[in-house]
Amino acid sequence: MTEHDIDGLTEEQAKTLLESLSQELAAANTAYHSEDAPKIDDASYDAKKRLNAAIEAKFPHLKREDSPSDQVGAAPSVGFGKIKHAVPMLSLANAFTDEDVYAFADRVAKFLGVDVTHLQFTAEPKIDGLSLSIRYENGHLVYAATRGDGETGENVTNNVRTITDIPNQLSNAPEVLEVRGEVYMSHADFVALNAKQEKAEQKTFANPRNAAAGSLRQLDASITKSRPLRFFAYALGAQSAPLADTQLGTVATLKSLGFSTNSLMQVFENVADMVDHYRHIERSRADLGYDIDGVVYKVDALDLQARLGFRSTTPRWAIAHKFPAETAWTRLREIEIQVGRTGALSPVARLEPVNVGGVLVSNATLHNEDYIKGLDSKGNPIRGGKDIREGDLVQVYRAGDVIPKVADVDLSQRTELEPFDFERKLEELNIPGHRKPGDAVWRYAGDEPMDEVAIEALKHFVSRGAFDIEGLGAKQIEMFFSDPDLPIRHPADIFTLQHRDAQNIPKLANRTGWGERSALNLFQAIEDKRQIELHRVIFGLGIRHVGESAAKVLAQSFGSWENFRASMAAALPGTPERAELEGIDGIGPVMAESVVAAFQSPQAAEKIDELANHLSIKPAEQLGQSDSPVAGKTLVFTGTLVKMTRSEAKARAESLGAKVAGSVSAKTDLLIAGPGAGSKAKKATDLGIETIDEDQWIELISDQ
DNA sequence: GATCCTCGAGTTCA
DNA sequence: CTCGAGGATC
């Protein structure tokens, strides 16, 4: 029941309800605080609290001594609110070798069109903690948020206010200032905290990072206050005025504003010195007193950072030079085959569980057949050309501290093991598969689609970039897929779930593990997604080669579902529709074929249309809402550009909402022609397309 | 036709 | 996070 249907409640019922709610909420609170993991999800906790409050409002005299409404620490809505970052908190690209670092510097120089010797970079330790963004307005701390997915983080303001390294007030600060940095715990504090926890028979932490994370995510700020959290400031997010014109200057100003900054940050004139500094920091790693996992290099000049801008998930002007990962030796029990949503058959190593850098690892990816054989995609040997066999003693590491991989094989421990035969394994498992010449992956080749593929496709459909249906995750999908009463076999089935449940005799709400509330929550979450953005639908279809990015390009290009749908039906090879599809920037022949093919079989088309009928698909918002004169225009650059490089000009134009094409056509709005422009300029003149030179171009975008 | 850049798909554990 | 591969560029 919810707070909306307490009308008919008798006093007796209300009393009983209040009692049970009080108990449930108290238990949930304890679970949350002591184990750092809630027993019930936030939504149901909130619902219970609201119900409790509603009953208390109607029967004030029944309010209990131990009413959950009066509990401190659980006062606000449970969990943490979400905060959308004004400037996204991106992750960094990684370098694992010195060569990667040199390549990074060269890339930067090339993008800017300068010689690499003219560039300066900062180098600083990469703290192994949690990134945090703290917003100050007129010198007052207004909120602090974790990184989250980079777009949206958790509101941890109350906890952050208790961290002594972080000022609550700033003097002489600009109107708006978002300070970014890393929350961490020192080795000494970590050891002391664990000793204290043990004494109090509380849970201990595996490493300082986890301890810092656990401490920051306390619902009760007084617990956070008791934890020895520290903070290094290293960058800015949104800002009403810049603090300096270099990275180093920014950090120096942050220090003068009262923040802790890392003393090992330095500026270097050349890459060799940067790499030396990396070695220096690596050698002193054990003596620093806190965990670091590498060194971060950044282009020092902020105006150059601005010119470099961002790739889809990382800034172009920074890179993290990571320390070698921790490794561990263990026995490889067996190689299993997993099936992905596209029918890809991927080998996975089942391992004797082993601790790698504080995490128990029992699986490792083996990528594909060649990787097991010890070859990379070009046929070059990896791991010294050693193959991997079932039963081998293998060295495991976590690539990027996340994904377990096999680094090495101990051949001296190998006796009478057969080389792994991928094809024979598939035969044993009775999986029909084939590997196209030139491809690395084996794919499922049976006539009937495998259940595993359908399940993975459904998981993709409800995943975050697609429909993102709350309460319908991987686990629920697996349950519903083979459910006898309420099956979900296709995406469209999700949107008939509530209706079908209503017709059924056994109701979802009566199942074990479910209740009235959780069933309604699920149905509501599904209802919420009936109105959905076009790109989410296209992405959710799970068409091969069409990921989130391509889905957005397609949505933007076709504007509406009807438009897109009609074009897919028509765009057979050789038609004008196909030419138009392939003409879209970012869509080539392979993707065009793949996306059109997805609509060609009558069965597939029927399923897609059935799904669309359940939805109200929002047309794509036209990009380039910026008032830039080039917003929404299609531009072509030709000839030599002097003031900025081609890629820079392209990135800049796109950030202003323009589309940059490679060649002049009737759809081109503007040609920017540098010296040496040839056939493109002529064609533009012939077509009557406006042509400007580079100076006019810079003039055009200068006041943006 | 080769090379660079980016995206897509698959991967682990908590 | 990594690898493979598609698309754009030179």
What does this structure look like?
- With 704 residues, this protein is α+β, with helices and mostly antiparallel strands.
- It folds into six domains: 77 residues, Helix Hairpins, CATH 1.10.287.610; 230 residues, D-amino Acid Aminotransferase, Chain A, domain 1 (2-Layer Sandwich); 118 residues, OB fold (Dihydrolipoamide Acetyltransferase, E2P) (Beta Barrel), CATH 2.40.50.140; 79 residues, Orthogonal Bundle (DNA polymerase, domain 1), CATH 1.10.150.20; 86 residues, DNA polymerase, domain 1, CATH 1.10.150; 69 residues, BRCT domain (Rossmann fold, 3-Layer(aba) Sandwich), CATH 3.40.50.10190.
- It has 26 helices and 24 strands.
- The two termini are 54 Å apart.
- About 3% of the residues have low confidence.
- The structure holds a DNA duplex (14 and 10 nucleotides).
Write a brief caption for the model.
With about 700 residues, this protein is of the alpha+beta class. Helices cover about 35% and strands about 20% of the residues.
CA-to-CA gap between the ends? Answer: 54 Å
Proportion of helical residues: 25-40%
Flag low-confidence runs: 29-43, 70-78
- Main beta sheet: 7 strands, antiparallel
> From the 3D coordinates, which CATH architecture of the largest domain would you assign?
2-Layer Sandwich
Overall geometry comes to globular
State the name of the first-level CATH class of the largest domain: Alpha Beta
